[in-house]
Design brief:
Layout lengths: L5 E6 L3 E6 L2 E6 L4 E7 L5 E9 L4 E5 L2 E4 L8 H13 L1 E2 L2 E9 L8 E8 L2 E2 L12 E6 L3 H10 L3 E2 L4 H9 L3
Parallel strand pairs: 4-10, 6-13
Antiparallel strand pairs: 1-2, 2-3, 4-7, 5-6, 5-12, 8-11, 9-10
Amino acid sequence: MTDEPVDIAWQGKWIVAKRQGKWEYVSRARDIQAAVILAIDDEDHVLLVDQYRVPLGQRCLELPAGLIGDEHDGDTALDAARRELEEETGYRCELVEDLGYFHSSPGMVSEGFTLVRATGLTKVSEGGGIADEDIVVHRVARADLPAFVAQKRTEGVAIDVKLLLLLGGTMLARS
């Protein structure tokens, strides 16, 4: 642990680059947080999205997700999850459960996310996000997920680390 002061190297609308002693890292601006949605339907299919990610310079396969409190005052993780699930995938859910708060890259970013499980899914639109998000929705049987991810890799799509949640068992199995 360090008692050194935090210096702001640069701040934009969405992120803040910080320095504390020898460490350099990035935080979300305005204490904005994120909700990540594990949406599994009654037929054991999971909803995934892919979209172009500027920092990667390519499309990325991900769980649906969105920011909490970026545009909606009083927003909670569960509110944001419901809204983002419908915007991105075109599905509404009956139930959304908080599965905990996690950090995906704690050596580089301070951001964490609330993981939620959405169940009781009903398709209400095509999804695809808002404005220029260009989100492609995938409904994939959990049993087919390892092959689906492998195919996306061969197509040059990046794979978000949070998909390990769904792939863990198959990756840990000995061949």
